[in-house]
Amino acid sequence: MRYLDEYRRPEHVRQLAAAVRAATTRPWCIMEICGGQTHTIVRFGLDELLPREITLIHGPGCPVCVTPVEMLDKAVAVAERPEVIFCSFGDMLRVPASTKDLLTVKSEGGDVRIVYSPMDAVALAQKHPDRQVVFFAVGFETTAPANALAVARAAALGLTNFSVLVSHVLVPPAIRAVLASPSNRVQGFLAAGHVCTVMGVEEYRPLADEFRAPIVVTGFEPVDILQGVLMCVKQLETGRHDVEIQYARAVRPEGNPPAIRQIGEVFQCVPRKWRGIGEIPASGLALREKYAAFDAERRFAVETVTAEESPECIAGEILQGHKTPHDCPAFALRCTPEKPLGAPMVSTEGACAAYYRYRKRQAVKSPLRAPTAGWSGRGLG
Length: 381
Description:
Elements: H1 2-5, H2 10-23, E1 28-34, H3 35-44, H4 46-49, E2 54-61, H5 63-66, H6 69-79, E3 84-88, H7 102-107, E4 111-114, H8 118-127, E5 132-139, H9 144-157, E6 162-169, H10 171-180, E7 188-192, H11 193-199, H12 205-211, E8 215-218, H13 222-238, E9 243-245, H14 257-266, E10 267-274, E11 278-287, H15 296-299, H16 315-319, H17 351-358
Parallel strand pairs: 1-2, 1-7, 3-4, 3-5, 5-6, 7-8, 8-9
Antiparallel strand pairs: 6-11, 10-11
Helix pairs in contact: 2-13, 3-17, 8-9, 9-14
């Protein structure tokens, strides 16, 4: 697998780690915004390769993790209705709501189906005109174009039995919220390459300028991430705060203009609640009034559903980078993938899931700091 292996070569990883050590003269805190980046860092022990002066902080970039409990309660309420075929990507089925998850609804007889594209849900609506088909539209800007296209397609087909439960969130407002926090320690960011493949990087430039924080767009393999760390450290050491693209094989500064237009046609920016964090202004997408007929919240009258977070789950502090999963008293004891207290333990991009899989046995108690003893080179040959 040439185009994967070349970004995992141990010799390249070690060279980049050595370059980071050589470039670092003082402490720096860098946040990787995406859960996919977090999993790579934890799986391959990349943070253990870095000098002690570099602290990698895990950010809120897992859309499954930040979907609030009340949105899951809305999904459960809709999915339990006998006339509904509820469609979702598989990663949402085990995310806990306040009383049950979507997989439990399915086990109790609800028609909950895993699909691989929102267009699969549109096809189901065409095939079953006597049923209401609902698609759970969750994700960052990465999944928004396809979801917008599905709504536009349903409108063009005149489907009256298709709707979407929208829980889209946006990355730049989350970065702003982190940097504007009085307790912020983050000095630079590794931005998510897949999001920028769609949206480009222009939205990040005002943030870098306002908060004087470098932002480097990276991919998701070990070489990508360490190269991004090196680029970020070089900026920090020289007092620069630019937006740079490490993931140039996929990201263009302008992004994907047709995809951006499709999002703008169907969705508008709205405030959005984030699990464990609260409401962030202009951080979500909702259907424009033109497409209000496809809004599942309105169709099934679940707009007013509210729910409380688990008092034992510290997902919010983990998602904001204030704590790591090892700081949670319930981690790997009362919170496991089989019986999760929060979404970060079951999401494929969740920090808790990454730590459970790769660092469950490590007794790390220092906030925001992984062990720095010798690197084991896990998974790199």
